[in-house]
Amino acid sequence: MNVAAHSVPASARLLEVHSLGKSFFKPDGDALVVLEEVNLALARGEIVGLLGRSGSGKSTLLRLIAGLDAPSRGMVRYMGAPVDGPAPGISMVFQGFALFPWLTVLGNVQLGLEAMGLPEAELRKRSLAAIDLIGLDGYESAYPRELSGGMRQRVGFARALVVHPNILLMDEPFSALDVLTAETLRNDFLDLWGRGELPIGAVLLVTHNIEEAVQMCDRLLIFSTHPGRVVSEIPVDLPHPREPFDPHVRALVDRVYVEMTARPRQSREGARAERPVMVGIGTPLEHVSTNLLAGLLEAVSEPPYGGRADLPAIAHALHMEGDDLFPVAETLQLLRFAEVEGGDIRLTEAGLTFARSDTDERKALFAQHLMAHVPLAAHVRRVLDERSSHRAPKSRFLDELEDHMAEEAAEQSLRAVISWGRYAEIFAYDDQRQVFSLENPA
Predict the structure, then answer these.
(1) Engineered SS bond to 290: which of 268, 305, 356, 423, CB 3.0-4.6 Å?
(2) pTM above the 0.85 mark?
(3) Which architecture does CATH list for 290-437?
């Protein structure tokens, strides 16, 4: 079992995940592996954060733990018993509130208790207590449409807490809220947790916000992607409250950035190393706009950075979450405009030249790097050059990509290449007809 499980004594474990795997089957019968050989344990009294890029299977893992879906391999054990369906004592708070609009606040909260068959008086007493605890006393008769986003999420928390769960699963519970509301709700939750007033045994938190994870959690588990597995565990041995600009907090945030931008490596589970980066048209691409690419190049090229920046610092300066910044930085690395390592981004000479150039010079340099370093873009242009009509349907490339990746990844890769190709003027694309052509390139 991996370090994420070994770090929790067997006698203290509320939850154990053993060699868990989850695959989904595509229409052609091929399997898409989302999770592979995931091992972890959760002890009473701790908050554990799951961090990883989009596509690492974190939300899928929560659904498997909650018993809302069945694993393809391995096992989830809760209180020593296998989870083979929704487990009493495990509650979940969702990103999107998931309230019933025709029920009042009280009705939504009571819904969490009705399956327990409690007497009406006890049901109402516990529901009102949960509503009061989470700061919504006085809103019992209000409907979700009357509440702000933060208040609706408080209802979601109250509904999860009313059953007094041993384990609370939180799937990006603050990400749909504005920054100030999220901070208020997060701090209120931590205050209640610290005072022992929350009727919860332990918390498993999925988040893409690295600062939030360091602020809230006792341990952080870093997930790889394609497929998702635990590759690193970071203990957070800091007292609460944790101030965002405390040097110890910043050091941990930096460490997480380093871990999440590290080169693919052998996972600590003893599983095989992460799949190497593919070379060729089968390389999945993330759709990052050229405005974001240019904006990051400009920001890093200017004072105080001068071509090299700490990723947490530049994320804070640009008001970006790490999960939003990583694809931009890594696309610049793919195009050889930057190098990303050790939690830093450093512009190459080409990247610095781009940042200092005018529009036409930028387009020419981008076209050069796109054709040289993005095989799919070069492949599309080559096909168009070779055809007498200089036209090709999107389906011709989509079918080819789906031999290498899932349908969704193929669509995203083509969207990326279409956007970049248009900017570089190496080909045109008619979205209505779904046809590539050489009608407009310079």
Answers:
(1) 423
(2) no
(3) Orthogonal Bundle (1.10)
